[in-house]
Amino acid sequence: MSARVPERGSWLEASARARVAGLLDANSFTEFLGPEQREMSPHLSLFDLPRAFDDGVVVGRGKLGGRPVFVAAQDGRFMGGTFGEISGSKIVGLLRAARDGAAGDDAPRTVLLLLDTGGVRLQEANAGELAVSEIIRAIAEARRAGITVIALVGGKAGAFGGGGIITACCSRIVVSRHGRISVSGPEVIETNQGIEEFDSKDRALVWRITGGRTRWLTGGADRYVADEIRAFREAAMALGAEDAAPFDLFRLQAEQSRLEQRLQVDGDSRDATQIWTRRGLDEPERVGDMTEHDFVVLADREAPNHDAR
Amino acid sequence: MTLDELAEALFTGGHALEQDDLGVVAGNATSGNGVELRVVGIVGGRPLGVDAAIRLSRIVLEHVAGGNGAPLLMLVDTQSQKMARRDELLGLNEYLAHLSKSLALASLEGVRTIGLLYGGAAAGAFIATALSTERLVAVPGAEPSVMDLPSIARVTKLPLERLKEMAGTTPIFAPGLDHLAATGAVAECWDADRSGYAARLDALLSEGGEVADRRDELGAERKGRLRAAEIARRVRGEASGRARS
Protein backbone atom coordinates (compact mmCIF):
# COMPACT_ATOMS: atom_id res chain seq x y z
CA MET A 1 0.00 0.00 0.00
CA SER A 2 2.88 2.34 0.62
CA ALA A 3 3.46 2.81 -3.13
CA ARG A 4 -0.12 3.93 -3.69
CA VAL A 5 -0.36 7.29 -5.38
CA PRO A 6 -1.73 9.84 -2.91
CA GLU A 7 -3.93 11.55 -5.48
CA ARG A 8 -6.25 13.00 -2.88
CA GLY A 9 -3.34 14.16 -0.83
CA SER A 10 -2.37 17.75 -0.29
CA TRP A 11 -0.11 19.32 -2.92
CA LEU A 12 1.26 21.66 -0.28
CA GLU A 13 2.40 18.85 2.01
CA ALA A 14 3.78 16.54 -0.70
CA SER A 15 7.41 16.21 -1.74
CA ALA A 16 8.44 17.00 -5.31
CA ARG A 17 8.57 13.29 -6.12
CA ALA A 18 5.15 12.63 -4.61
CA ARG A 19 3.69 15.49 -6.64
CA VAL A 20 5.16 14.09 -9.85
CA ALA A 21 3.95 10.57 -9.03
CA GLY A 22 0.44 11.75 -8.25
CA LEU A 23 0.21 14.22 -11.11
CA LEU A 24 1.16 11.79 -13.87
CA ASP A 25 -0.48 8.55 -14.95
CA ALA A 26 0.46 5.74 -12.55
CA ASN A 27 3.97 4.37 -12.99
CA SER A 28 4.58 6.40 -16.18
CA PHE A 29 7.46 8.54 -14.92
CA THR A 30 11.06 8.14 -16.09
CA GLU A 31 13.60 10.44 -14.48
CA PHE A 32 16.54 12.07 -16.27
CA LEU A 33 19.81 12.60 -14.43
CA GLY A 34 18.30 10.93 -11.39
CA PRO A 35 19.68 10.91 -7.85
CA GLU A 36 21.66 7.73 -8.56
CA GLN A 37 23.94 9.88 -10.69
CA ARG A 38 24.61 12.08 -7.67
CA GLU A 39 24.87 15.36 -9.50
CA MET A 40 25.09 17.61 -6.49
CA SER A 41 25.81 21.28 -6.11
CA PRO A 42 29.54 21.97 -6.44
CA HIS A 43 29.13 25.09 -4.28
CA LEU A 44 27.12 24.30 -1.14
CA SER A 45 29.96 22.50 0.64
CA LEU A 46 31.89 25.76 0.68
CA PHE A 47 29.16 27.09 2.92
CA ASP A 48 29.12 23.95 5.08
CA LEU A 49 25.64 23.17 3.81
CA PRO A 50 24.29 19.71 3.07
CA ARG A 51 23.80 18.72 -0.55
CA ALA A 52 21.13 16.62 -2.25
CA PHE A 53 21.68 13.88 -4.83
CA ASP A 54 19.19 15.59 -7.16
CA ASP A 55 20.05 19.17 -6.10
CA GLY A 56 16.39 19.65 -5.28
CA VAL A 57 14.98 19.27 -8.80
CA VAL A 58 13.36 16.23 -10.41
CA VAL A 59 13.15 16.20 -14.23
CA GLY A 60 11.87 13.52 -16.57
CA ARG A 61 9.06 12.39 -18.79
CA GLY A 62 5.81 10.56 -18.26
CA LYS A 63 2.22 10.47 -19.35
CA LEU A 64 -0.71 12.64 -18.41
CA GLY A 65 -4.07 11.28 -19.47
CA GLY A 66 -2.20 9.03 -21.89
CA ARG A 67 -0.33 11.91 -23.56
CA PRO A 68 3.47 12.20 -23.24
CA VAL A 69 4.73 15.13 -21.16
CA PHE A 70 7.99 16.44 -19.80
CA VAL A 71 7.96 17.45 -16.16
CA ALA A 72 10.26 19.36 -13.82
CA ALA A 73 9.58 19.65 -10.11
CA GLN A 74 11.35 21.73 -7.49
CA ASP A 75 11.58 20.51 -3.93
CA GLY A 76 10.85 23.53 -1.76
CA ARG A 77 12.16 21.67 1.27
CA PHE A 78 15.70 21.52 -0.05
CA MET A 79 17.37 24.95 0.04
CA GLY A 80 13.96 26.56 -0.48
CA GLY A 81 13.65 25.08 -3.97
CA THR A 82 16.21 27.55 -5.19
CA PHE A 83 17.74 27.85 -8.64
CA GLY A 84 21.38 26.78 -8.44
CA GLU A 85 23.89 25.79 -11.10
CA ILE A 86 22.82 22.13 -11.26
CA SER A 87 19.14 22.44 -10.34
CA GLY A 88 18.62 25.29 -12.79
CA SER A 89 20.48 23.64 -15.66
CA LYS A 90 18.38 20.49 -15.33
CA ILE A 91 15.30 22.57 -16.13
CA VAL A 92 17.13 24.37 -18.97
CA GLY A 93 18.07 21.03 -20.55
CA LEU A 94 14.51 19.71 -20.28
CA LEU A 95 13.02 22.80 -21.94
CA ARG A 96 15.57 22.66 -24.74
CA ALA A 97 14.73 19.01 -25.33
CA ALA A 98 11.04 19.94 -25.55
CA ARG A 99 11.82 22.75 -27.98
CA ASP A 100 13.81 20.42 -30.21
CA GLY A 101 11.15 17.69 -30.23
CA ALA A 102 14.16 15.60 -29.34
CA ALA A 103 12.27 12.45 -28.40
CA GLY A 104 11.12 11.68 -31.95
CA ASP A 105 7.58 10.79 -33.01
CA ASP A 106 6.46 10.39 -29.43
CA ALA A 107 7.94 13.74 -28.39
CA PRO A 108 6.01 15.52 -25.63
CA ARG A 109 4.21 18.71 -26.67
CA THR A 110 3.66 19.76 -23.07
CA VAL A 111 6.06 20.70 -20.28
CA LEU A 112 4.83 20.85 -16.69
CA LEU A 113 6.84 23.09 -14.37
CA LEU A 114 6.10 22.37 -10.71
CA LEU A 115 7.53 25.51 -9.17
CA ASP A 116 8.23 25.63 -5.43
CA THR A 117 10.97 28.18 -4.99
CA GLY A 118 12.28 31.16 -3.11
CA GLY A 119 14.18 32.22 -6.23
CA VAL A 120 17.90 32.25 -6.93
CA ARG A 121 20.10 30.27 -4.53
CA LEU A 122 22.24 33.00 -3.03
CA GLN A 123 25.19 30.71 -2.25
CA GLU A 124 25.59 30.34 -6.02
CA ALA A 125 23.76 33.49 -6.99
CA ASN A 126 25.45 34.22 -10.30
CA ALA A 127 24.91 30.72 -11.67
CA GLY A 128 21.33 30.74 -10.39
CA GLU A 129 20.53 34.11 -11.93
CA LEU A 130 21.85 32.95 -15.29
CA ALA A 131 19.88 29.72 -15.04
CA VAL A 132 16.70 31.74 -14.51
CA SER A 133 17.49 33.81 -17.60
CA GLU A 134 18.27 30.67 -19.61
CA ILE A 135 15.01 29.06 -18.50
CA ILE A 136 13.06 32.13 -19.63
CA ARG A 137 14.77 32.06 -23.02
CA ALA A 138 14.18 28.31 -23.34
CA ILE A 139 10.48 28.70 -22.46
CA ALA A 140 10.09 31.36 -25.16
CA GLU A 141 11.83 29.14 -27.72
CA ALA A 142 9.83 26.07 -26.73
CA ARG A 143 6.54 27.97 -26.92
CA ARG A 144 7.59 29.34 -30.29
CA ALA A 145 8.08 25.74 -31.41
CA GLY A 146 4.49 24.96 -30.43
CA ILE A 147 5.10 23.52 -26.97
CA THR A 148 2.67 24.33 -24.15
CA VAL A 149 4.47 25.11 -20.88
CA ILE A 150 2.25 24.94 -17.80
CA ALA A 151 3.28 26.30 -14.40
CA LEU A 152 1.83 24.60 -11.31
CA VAL A 153 2.26 26.64 -8.11
CA GLY A 154 1.02 25.53 -4.73
CA GLY A 155 4.07 24.61 -2.65
CA LYS A 156 5.29 26.03 0.64
CA ALA A 157 8.01 28.13 -0.96
CA GLY A 158 5.62 29.61 -3.55
CA ALA A 159 7.23 31.11 -6.64
CA PHE A 160 9.36 34.07 -5.67
CA GLY A 161 12.12 36.06 -7.32
CA GLY A 162 13.10 34.56 -10.65
CA GLY A 163 10.55 31.82 -9.98
CA GLY A 164 7.75 34.38 -10.10
CA ILE A 165 9.04 35.75 -13.40
CA ILE A 166 9.39 32.25 -14.87
CA THR A 167 5.82 31.45 -13.81
CA ALA A 168 4.46 34.35 -15.84
CA CYS A 169 6.50 33.31 -18.88
CA CYS A 170 4.59 30.04 -19.13
CA SER A 171 1.64 29.44 -21.46
CA ARG A 172 -0.68 28.68 -18.58
CA ILE A 173 -0.60 28.96 -14.78
CA VAL A 174 -2.41 26.75 -12.26
CA VAL A 175 -2.44 27.96 -8.68
CA SER A 176 -3.88 26.96 -5.32
CA ARG A 177 -4.48 29.30 -2.41
CA HIS A 178 -1.03 28.43 -1.09
CA GLY A 179 0.64 29.38 -4.35
CA ARG A 180 2.17 32.70 -3.42
CA ILE A 181 3.65 34.35 -6.51
CA SER A 182 5.79 37.45 -6.28
CA VAL A 183 9.16 38.92 -7.15
CA SER A 184 10.51 40.51 -3.96
CA GLY A 185 9.52 38.62 -0.84
CA PRO A 186 7.70 40.51 1.93
CA GLU A 187 10.72 40.28 4.24
CA VAL A 188 13.00 41.79 1.59
CA ILE A 189 10.57 44.66 0.99
CA GLU A 190 10.25 45.28 4.71
CA THR A 191 14.02 45.24 5.17
CA ASN A 192 14.58 47.66 2.31
CA GLN A 193 11.56 49.95 2.58
CA GLY A 194 10.43 49.71 6.17
CA ILE A 195 7.61 48.03 8.03
CA GLU A 196 5.09 50.71 7.07
CA GLU A 197 5.56 49.69 3.42
CA PHE A 198 5.12 45.97 4.04
CA ASP A 199 4.70 44.30 7.43
CA SER A 200 5.94 40.81 6.65
CA LYS A 201 4.66 39.52 10.00
CA ASP A 202 1.08 40.36 9.02
CA ARG A 203 0.24 36.99 7.54
CA ALA A 204 -3.19 37.96 6.27
CA LEU A 205 -1.67 40.93 4.44
CA VAL A 206 1.07 38.76 2.93
CA TRP A 207 -1.56 36.37 1.57
CA ARG A 208 -3.68 39.20 0.23
CA ILE A 209 -0.72 40.69 -1.67
CA THR A 210 0.99 37.53 -2.95
CA GLY A 211 -1.40 34.61 -2.48
CA GLY A 212 -2.99 32.39 -5.08
CA ARG A 213 -6.45 33.89 -4.66
CA THR A 214 -5.26 37.39 -5.43
CA ARG A 215 -3.19 36.18 -8.36
CA TRP A 216 -6.14 34.34 -9.76
CA LEU A 217 -8.59 37.22 -9.31
CA THR A 218 -6.29 39.72 -11.02
CA GLY A 219 -5.48 37.47 -13.97
CA GLY A 220 -2.07 36.33 -12.77
CA ALA A 221 -3.17 32.69 -13.00
CA ASP A 222 -5.46 30.82 -15.37
CA ARG A 223 -6.85 28.11 -13.09
CA TYR A 224 -7.54 28.14 -9.38
CA VAL A 225 -7.65 24.70 -7.79
CA ALA A 226 -8.09 23.22 -4.34
CA ASP A 227 -4.95 22.08 -2.54
CA GLU A 228 -5.14 18.51 -3.84
CA ILE A 229 -2.75 16.67 -6.11
CA ARG A 230 -5.80 15.36 -7.94
CA ALA A 231 -7.08 18.89 -8.62
CA PHE A 232 -3.72 19.95 -10.06
CA ARG A 233 -3.75 16.83 -12.23
CA GLU A 234 -7.20 17.58 -13.61
CA ALA A 235 -6.31 21.19 -14.38
CA ALA A 236 -3.03 20.19 -16.06
CA MET A 237 -4.83 17.56 -18.14
CA ALA A 238 -7.44 20.05 -19.33
CA LEU A 239 -4.85 22.72 -20.18
CA GLY A 240 -2.44 20.25 -21.77
CA ALA A 241 -5.18 18.98 -24.08
CA GLU A 242 -5.74 22.46 -25.53
CA ASP A 243 -3.96 23.46 -28.71
CA ALA A 244 -0.81 25.40 -27.96
CA ALA A 245 -1.44 29.09 -28.40
CA PRO A 246 1.19 30.51 -30.74
CA PHE A 247 3.88 32.61 -29.08
CA ASP A 248 3.74 35.57 -31.42
CA LEU A 249 3.31 39.32 -31.68
CA PHE A 250 -0.46 39.08 -31.48
CA ARG A 251 -0.29 37.25 -28.16
CA LEU A 252 2.16 39.65 -26.55
CA GLN A 253 0.23 42.67 -27.81
CA ALA A 254 -2.82 41.16 -26.12
CA GLU A 255 -0.81 40.76 -22.92
CA GLN A 256 0.41 44.34 -23.24
CA SER A 257 -3.22 45.53 -23.37
CA ARG A 258 -4.24 43.29 -20.51
CA LEU A 259 -1.44 44.56 -18.25
CA GLU A 260 -1.97 48.20 -19.26
CA GLN A 261 -5.63 47.87 -18.45
CA ARG A 262 -4.82 46.46 -15.03
CA LEU A 263 -2.76 49.55 -14.23
CA GLN A 264 -5.53 51.84 -15.46
CA VAL A 265 -8.20 50.12 -13.40
CA ASP A 266 -6.32 49.02 -10.28
CA GLY A 267 -3.07 50.99 -10.44
CA ASP A 268 -3.83 53.03 -7.33
CA SER A 269 -4.40 49.96 -5.15
CA ARG A 270 -2.22 49.08 -2.20
CA ASP A 271 -4.26 46.17 -0.88
CA ALA A 272 -6.19 43.40 -2.56
CA THR A 273 -9.41 44.40 -0.82
CA GLN A 274 -9.50 47.54 -3.00
CA ILE A 275 -9.30 45.37 -6.13
CA TRP A 276 -11.95 42.97 -4.87
CA THR A 277 -14.26 45.86 -3.95
CA ARG A 278 -13.86 47.27 -7.44
CA ARG A 279 -14.78 43.87 -8.88
CA GLY A 280 -18.04 44.11 -6.96
CA LEU A 281 -17.38 41.06 -4.82
CA ASP A 282 -19.58 40.66 -1.78
CA GLU A 283 -17.71 41.24 1.44
CA PRO A 284 -14.32 41.80 -0.20
CA GLU A 285 -12.58 41.85 3.17
CA ARG A 286 -13.59 38.21 3.59
CA VAL A 287 -12.08 36.84 0.39
CA GLY A 288 -8.99 35.64 2.21
CA ASP A 289 -11.08 33.78 4.81
CA MET A 290 -13.62 32.13 2.51
CA THR A 291 -13.78 28.35 2.50
CA GLU A 292 -12.17 26.61 -0.41
CA HIS A 293 -15.57 25.52 -1.67
CA ASP A 294 -17.00 29.04 -1.58
CA PHE A 295 -13.96 30.48 -3.29
CA VAL A 296 -14.00 27.90 -6.08
CA VAL A 297 -17.66 28.80 -6.71
CA LEU A 298 -16.68 32.45 -6.79
CA ALA A 299 -13.71 31.63 -8.99
CA ASP A 300 -15.92 29.93 -11.55
CA ARG A 301 -18.21 32.96 -11.65
CA GLU A 302 -15.44 35.53 -11.86
CA ALA A 303 -13.10 33.56 -14.10
CA PRO A 304 -10.69 35.79 -16.01
CA ASN A 305 -11.25 34.82 -19.59
CA HIS A 306 -8.23 35.82 -21.59
CA ASP A 307 -5.59 34.17 -23.66
CA ALA A 308 -2.94 36.81 -23.32
CA ARG A 309 0.18 35.49 -21.71
CA MET B 1 29.80 57.31 -17.77
CA THR B 2 26.75 59.45 -18.52
CA LEU B 3 24.04 58.56 -21.00
CA ASP B 4 25.14 61.47 -23.21
CA GLU B 5 28.78 60.39 -23.21
CA LEU B 6 27.79 56.85 -24.03
CA ALA B 7 25.38 57.87 -26.80
CA GLU B 8 27.97 60.21 -28.36
CA ALA B 9 30.54 57.42 -28.38
CA LEU B 10 28.22 54.72 -29.73
CA PHE B 11 26.10 56.54 -32.27
CA THR B 12 28.55 58.48 -34.36
CA GLY B 13 25.94 58.55 -37.13
CA GLY B 14 23.64 60.57 -34.89
CA HIS B 15 20.92 59.98 -32.36
CA ALA B 16 17.72 61.39 -30.93
CA LEU B 17 16.79 59.99 -27.52
CA GLU B 18 14.09 61.04 -25.11
CA GLN B 19 13.90 60.21 -21.43
CA ASP B 20 10.71 60.23 -19.38
CA ASP B 21 9.92 60.71 -15.71
CA LEU B 22 10.56 57.03 -14.86
CA GLY B 23 13.97 56.85 -16.50
CA VAL B 24 12.62 55.15 -19.60
CA VAL B 25 14.56 56.09 -22.71
CA ALA B 26 13.36 55.70 -26.28
CA GLY B 27 14.68 56.94 -29.57
CA ASN B 28 16.50 56.27 -32.79
CA ALA B 29 20.18 56.25 -33.58
CA THR B 30 22.62 55.56 -36.38
CA SER B 31 25.80 53.59 -35.98
CA GLY B 32 29.16 54.65 -37.39
CA ASN B 33 28.57 52.44 -40.42
CA GLY B 34 25.13 53.89 -40.97
CA VAL B 35 23.06 51.11 -39.45
CA GLU B 36 19.72 52.44 -38.22
CA LEU B 37 18.95 51.39 -34.65
CA ARG B 38 15.97 51.53 -32.34
CA VAL B 39 17.04 52.47 -28.82
CA VAL B 40 15.21 51.68 -25.60
CA GLY B 41 16.42 51.78 -22.04
CA ILE B 42 15.99 52.26 -18.33
CA VAL B 43 18.52 54.77 -17.00
CA GLY B 44 19.42 57.06 -14.14
CA GLY B 45 19.68 54.22 -11.66
CA ARG B 46 15.90 54.04 -11.40
CA PRO B 47 14.25 50.87 -10.09
CA LEU B 48 12.14 48.81 -12.47
CA GLY B 49 8.52 48.72 -11.35
CA VAL B 50 5.30 47.91 -13.16
CA ASP B 51 4.94 51.41 -14.65
CA ALA B 52 8.39 51.53 -16.24
CA ALA B 53 8.27 47.89 -17.33
CA ILE B 54 5.00 48.30 -19.24
CA ARG B 55 6.39 51.34 -21.08
CA LEU B 56 9.53 49.44 -22.05
CA SER B 57 7.60 46.44 -23.35
CA ARG B 58 5.32 48.73 -25.36
CA ILE B 59 8.34 50.31 -27.06
CA VAL B 60 9.78 46.88 -27.84
CA LEU B 61 6.50 45.46 -29.20
CA GLU B 62 5.77 48.58 -31.27
CA HIS B 63 9.18 48.22 -32.83
CA VAL B 64 8.59 44.56 -33.65
CA ALA B 65 5.17 45.45 -35.08
CA GLY B 66 6.68 48.29 -37.12
CA GLY B 67 8.41 45.65 -39.16
CA ASN B 68 11.52 47.50 -40.33
CA GLY B 69 13.65 44.94 -38.49
CA ALA B 70 16.19 47.47 -37.23
CA PRO B 71 18.35 46.14 -34.41
CA LEU B 72 17.21 47.06 -30.91
CA LEU B 73 19.76 48.43 -28.49
CA MET B 74 18.78 48.40 -24.81
CA LEU B 75 20.63 50.81 -22.52
CA VAL B 76 20.65 49.73 -18.88
CA ASP B 77 21.48 51.73 -15.76
CA THR B 78 18.88 50.61 -13.23
CA GLN B 79 18.96 48.98 -9.79
CA SER B 80 16.81 46.12 -8.60
CA GLN B 81 13.14 45.71 -9.35
CA LYS B 82 11.05 48.26 -7.48
CA MET B 83 10.41 46.96 -3.99
CA ALA B 84 6.90 48.08 -3.16
CA ARG B 85 3.76 46.46 -1.89
CA ARG B 86 1.71 48.07 -4.66
CA ASP B 87 3.89 46.73 -7.45
CA GLU B 88 3.81 43.21 -6.04
CA LEU B 89 0.04 43.38 -5.54
CA LEU B 90 -0.39 44.37 -9.18
CA GLY B 91 1.71 41.41 -10.31
CA LEU B 92 5.20 42.76 -10.91
CA ASN B 93 6.23 39.23 -11.87
CA GLU B 94 3.91 39.42 -14.87
CA TYR B 95 5.22 42.82 -15.97
CA LEU B 96 8.86 41.73 -15.75
CA ALA B 97 8.05 38.46 -17.52
CA HIS B 98 6.17 40.33 -20.23
CA LEU B 99 9.17 42.59 -20.83
CA SER B 100 11.50 39.61 -20.98
CA LYS B 101 9.15 37.78 -23.35
CA SER B 102 8.86 40.87 -25.56
CA LEU B 103 12.63 40.99 -25.96
CA ALA B 104 12.71 37.25 -26.66
CA LEU B 105 9.98 37.69 -29.25
CA ALA B 106 11.98 40.43 -30.95
CA SER B 107 14.86 37.94 -31.33
CA LEU B 108 12.54 35.24 -32.63
CA GLU B 109 11.11 37.71 -35.15
CA GLY B 110 14.59 38.45 -36.46
CA VAL B 111 15.20 41.73 -34.65
CA ARG B 112 18.72 41.70 -33.20
CA THR B 113 18.75 42.71 -29.54
CA ILE B 114 21.87 44.07 -27.90
CA GLY B 115 22.06 45.11 -24.26
CA LEU B 116 24.44 47.79 -23.08
CA LEU B 117 24.99 47.83 -19.36
CA TYR B 118 26.67 50.99 -18.06
CA GLY B 119 25.33 51.17 -14.50
CA GLY B 120 23.55 49.02 -11.97
CA ALA B 121 21.25 46.09 -12.65
CA ALA B 122 20.20 43.68 -9.95
CA ALA B 123 17.98 40.66 -9.38
CA GLY B 124 14.70 40.72 -11.31
CA ALA B 125 15.48 43.99 -13.07
CA PHE B 126 18.72 42.50 -14.40
CA ILE B 127 16.83 39.43 -15.64
CA ALA B 128 14.07 41.40 -17.37
CA THR B 129 16.36 43.88 -19.16
CA ALA B 130 20.06 43.24 -19.81
CA LEU B 131 19.88 39.45 -19.46
CA SER B 132 16.95 39.26 -21.87
CA THR B 133 18.97 40.55 -24.82
CA GLU B 134 20.89 38.31 -27.22
CA ARG B 135 24.25 39.93 -26.63
CA LEU B 136 25.10 41.87 -23.50
CA VAL B 137 27.93 44.39 -23.54
CA ALA B 138 29.26 45.95 -20.36
CA VAL B 139 31.28 49.14 -20.14
CA PRO B 140 33.10 50.69 -17.16
CA GLY B 141 30.55 51.63 -14.53
CA ALA B 142 28.58 48.44 -15.07
CA GLU B 143 27.68 46.91 -11.71
CA PRO B 144 25.54 43.86 -12.25
CA SER B 145 24.52 41.84 -9.24
CA VAL B 146 22.01 39.35 -7.99
CA MET B 147 22.01 40.65 -4.45
CA ASP B 148 24.43 42.81 -2.48
CA LEU B 149 26.73 41.09 0.02
CA PRO B 150 25.07 42.51 3.18
CA SER B 151 21.72 41.10 2.04
CA ILE B 152 23.32 37.76 1.16
CA ALA B 153 24.85 37.76 4.64
CA ARG B 154 21.42 38.32 6.16
CA VAL B 155 19.76 35.53 4.17
CA THR B 156 22.57 32.98 4.47
CA LYS B 157 23.25 33.95 8.10
CA LEU B 158 26.96 34.13 7.39
CA PRO B 159 29.14 36.95 8.74
CA LEU B 160 29.74 39.66 6.15
CA GLU B 161 33.50 39.50 6.74
CA ARG B 162 33.56 35.78 5.93
CA LEU B 163 31.51 36.39 2.77
CA LYS B 164 33.93 39.08 1.67
CA GLU B 165 36.81 36.64 2.13
CA MET B 166 34.99 33.93 0.23
CA ALA B 167 34.11 36.31 -2.60
CA GLY B 168 37.80 36.49 -3.44
CA THR B 169 38.10 32.76 -4.05
CA THR B 170 34.50 31.76 -4.84
CA PRO B 171 33.14 34.25 -7.34
CA ILE B 172 30.04 32.16 -8.01
CA PHE B 173 27.97 34.17 -5.54
CA ALA B 174 29.69 37.55 -5.41
CA PRO B 175 28.36 40.71 -7.08
CA GLY B 176 30.34 42.47 -9.76
CA LEU B 177 31.03 42.58 -13.46
CA ASP B 178 34.02 40.22 -13.49
CA HIS B 179 32.11 37.52 -11.68
CA LEU B 180 28.99 37.79 -13.83
CA ALA B 181 31.06 37.90 -17.00
CA ALA B 182 32.83 34.69 -15.99
CA THR B 183 29.49 32.88 -15.79
CA GLY B 184 28.76 33.82 -19.40
CA ALA B 185 26.21 36.53 -18.62
CA VAL B 186 28.15 39.23 -20.44
CA ALA B 187 29.30 38.68 -24.01
CA GLU B 188 31.82 41.53 -24.15
CA CYS B 189 33.40 43.90 -21.66
CA TRP B 190 34.64 47.10 -23.26
CA ASP B 191 37.39 49.22 -21.74
CA ALA B 192 37.29 52.86 -20.76
CA ASP B 193 38.51 54.17 -24.12
CA ARG B 194 35.25 55.29 -25.65
CA SER B 195 36.81 56.06 -29.04
CA GLY B 196 36.52 52.40 -29.94
CA TYR B 197 32.84 51.95 -29.05
CA ALA B 198 31.33 52.89 -32.41
CA ALA B 199 33.52 50.38 -34.26
CA ARG B 200 32.83 47.65 -31.71
CA LEU B 201 29.11 48.25 -31.97
CA ASP B 202 29.31 47.94 -35.76
CA ALA B 203 31.30 44.74 -35.38
CA LEU B 204 28.54 43.31 -33.15
CA LEU B 205 25.87 44.43 -35.61
CA SER B 206 27.64 42.72 -38.48
CA GLU B 207 27.64 39.36 -36.71
CA GLY B 208 25.56 36.64 -38.31
CA GLY B 209 22.02 35.88 -37.28
CA GLU B 210 23.03 33.32 -34.65
CA VAL B 211 20.74 33.91 -31.71
CA ALA B 212 21.07 30.61 -29.84
CA ASP B 213 21.60 30.97 -26.13
CA ARG B 214 25.20 29.84 -25.59
CA ARG B 215 25.82 31.56 -22.31
CA ASP B 216 26.28 28.27 -20.48
CA GLU B 217 29.01 27.23 -22.91
CA LEU B 218 30.63 30.65 -22.54
CA GLY B 219 30.56 30.21 -18.77
CA ALA B 220 32.37 26.88 -19.12
CA GLU B 221 34.99 28.38 -21.46
CA ARG B 222 35.60 31.22 -19.03
CA LYS B 223 35.69 28.74 -16.13
CA GLY B 224 33.12 30.75 -14.18
CA ARG B 225 30.32 28.21 -14.49
CA LEU B 226 31.83 24.82 -15.05
CA ARG B 227 28.86 22.46 -14.85
CA ALA B 228 25.81 24.21 -16.29
CA ALA B 229 26.32 23.48 -20.00
CA GLU B 230 27.21 19.86 -19.35
CA ILE B 231 24.18 19.25 -17.11
CA ALA B 232 21.78 20.82 -19.62
CA ARG B 233 23.35 18.76 -22.41
CA ARG B 234 23.06 15.51 -20.47
CA VAL B 235 19.40 16.10 -19.57
CA ARG B 236 18.71 16.89 -23.20
CA GLY B 237 20.49 13.70 -24.21
CA GLU B 238 18.53 11.51 -21.82
CA ALA B 239 15.30 13.24 -22.84
CA SER B 240 15.94 12.42 -26.48
CA GLY B 241 16.33 8.76 -25.59
CA ARG B 242 20.07 8.45 -25.98
CA ALA B 243 21.77 5.97 -23.71
CA ARG B 244 23.13 7.29 -20.48
CA SER B 245 26.81 7.97 -20.53
Q: What would you note in describing this structure?
A:
The complex is a heterodimer of chains A (309) and B (245). In chain A, a hairpin with a 2-residue loop joins strand 2 (57-64) and strand 3 (67-74). Chain A contains eleven helices and seven strands. Chain A has helices at residues 16-23, 85-100, 125-144, 162-167, 186-193, 203-210, 212-218, 229-241, 249-266, 272-278, 292-301; strands at 30-32, 57-64, 67-74, 110-115, 148-153, 172-175, 223-224. Chain A is globular and about 55 Å long. In chain A, helix 2 runs parallel beside helix 3 (125-144) and helix 6 (203-210) packs parallel to helix 7 (212-218). Chain B is built from eleven helices and nine strands. Chain B has a domain at 3-142 and 186-210: 2-enoyl-CoA Hydratase, Chain A, domain 1 (Alpha-Beta Complex). The mean pLDDT of chain B is 94. In chain B, the strands form two sheets. A seven-stranded mixed sheet of chain B has the order 1-2-3-4-5-7-9, with helices on both faces. In chain B, strands 6-8 form a two-stranded parallel sheet. Chain B is α/β, with parallel strands linked by helices and 245 residues long. Chain B has helices at 3-10, 50-66, 85-89, 92-108, 123-128, 149-156, 160-169, 177-183, 197-205, 215-221, 228-239, and strands at residues 15-19, 24-30, 36-48, 72-81, 113-117, 120-122, 135-138, 143-145, 188-189. Classes of the chains: A alpha/beta (309), B alpha/beta (245). At the A-B interface, helix 2, helix 3, helix 4, helix 5 and helix 6 of A face helix 2, helix 3, helix 4, helix 5 and helix 6 of B.
